[in-house]
Design brief:
Strand order of the largest sheet: 1-2-3-5-4
Largest sheet: 5 strands, mixed
Number of strands: 5
Helix content: 55-70%
Radius of gyration: 42 Å
Length: 380
């Protein structure tokens, strides 16, 4: 598949136009030579200079045109060596683009063809060798400058690549450290919380079993402890899997009924209402809504001394409203703890809003507005 030739830009055209004027001026003011300038001489000058406009697109072709024009100009015996200017530009561009062999061939053609052409003419200038040595020196200098420019560009690309590699290495190292820290946290949680919650669940289960075996009434609080510890174990295992690399987030509105049943078993009546058409939510929004209700009801059960609570979900076109109210004691001033702070962080990460505080008629209220668009900042 052939690479398309890029179009000429205005800078290349402007430089070529300036070069045309420069070579024409140099030819006019040059000392007289074997042949005076005619239409052919001017044409060779214009063609060589104009060709440089395409030097970035087709450097080898431009080098061939300028070399041929210069050799023809010198063999014909026109005044001056002004065609060397387009050749110098073409040589520099070709070598910088990596075309060293064509550049060497061009210098060889000019050195051999042009010099032989002058030596075979009838009117040989006494300083012809000195003039051609100087010209070849300028051509070699242009080629060397092109090679240096190419090496400098390669060096800059290498530096940029090294910087990108270093940045990627730092990110990979940071990611590995974060993964290792998550695994360590998961291990610590497993070795501590899982052990204690398991003990609570076993003791509660044994107490319930013995009470039923003796035909004694089982306290509701004991049943609630057994159920809550079981739920805590399941959520803790899901959280540990998440910390160890499982991308599935624990908790969601699919489990809201089980959550409310557990709260009711603990002695707090809860009513739930849903406004709007219930539908599947982005995973992060779904889990955040569940956690808000879970934390709000946990606080109500522990601190409010409430007789009842209500949970309300309102599905809008682009927002989910979550509201949890209770009729407990409330408080004059709210001091956010870890639960409320974590709740607010989750909501803010989604770009939503959260309001918490005492209700005018008594009790406490938690209200959250969650955008129904999955965030791009990795909130969980």
């Amino acid at each position: 598949m052939r690479t398309p030739i890029p179009p000429l830009n205005w800078r290349d055209l402007a430089q070529a136009a300036g070069l045309i004027g420069l070579v024409l001026l140099g030819a006019v003011i040059a000392p007289p030579a074997r042949v005076g300038l005619d239409v052919g001489g001017y044409a060779l000058l214009v063609v060589a200079a104009a060709a440089t406009a395409a030097r970035r697109a087709v450097p080898v072709a431009v080098l061939a045109v300028t070399t041929a024009a210069m050799v023809a100009y010198e063999i014909r015996g026109y005044p001056g060596v002004v065609p060397a200017l387009p050749v110098l530009v073409a040589l520099f561009t070709a070598v910088r683009a990596g075309h060293r062999w064509p550049a060497g061939a061009a210098v060889g053609v000019i050195a051999i063809g042009g010099l032989i052409g002058e030596l075979t003419c009838d009117q040989l200038s006494p300083d012809v060798l000195q003039r051609w040595y100087l010209l070849i020196g300028w051509l070699l200098a242009a080629a060397v400058t092109g090679a240096l420019a190419r090496a400098h560009r390669a060096y800059l690309e290498q530096v940029e690549q090294r910087a990108a590699d270093a940045e990627r290495t730092r990110e990979e190292t940071a990611q590995r450290r974060a993964d290792a820290e998550r695994v360590r946290i998961a291990r610590e949680l497993h070795d501590t919380l899982t052990h204690h919650i398991s003990i609570i669940k076993v003791h509660a289960g044994v107490a319930v079993h013995l009470a039923r075996k003796r035909d004694e009434p089982v306290p509701d609080a004991l049943v609630a402890i057994e159920r809550a510890s079981g739920d805590a174990m399941r959520e803790l295992r899901a959280t540990l899997e998440l910390l160890r690399g499982d991308q599935q987030s624990p908790g969601g509105l699919d489990g809201i009924a089980d959550l409310l049943d557990g709260v009711r078993a603990a002695g707090l009546p809860v009513q739930m209402t849903v406004d709007g058409e219930r539908r599947r939510l982005p995973t992060v929004v779904d889990r955040t809504a569940y956690r808000i209700v879970q934390e709000a009801l946990t606080n109500t059960t522990r601190h409010a001394g409430a007789a009842a609570a209500s949970v309300r979900f309102a599905y809008g076109d682009d927002v989910l409203s979550v509201r949890v109210d209770d009729d407990g004691r409330g408080c004059a001033e709210v001091v956010p703890g870890i639960g409320l702070s974590g709740m607010r962080e989750r909501v803010i990460a989604l770009g939503g809003s959260l309001r918490t505080g005492p209700r005018p008629g008594g009790g406490f209220s938690v209200r959250a507005e969650l955008p129904l668009v999955a965030p791009t900042n990795g909130a969980t």
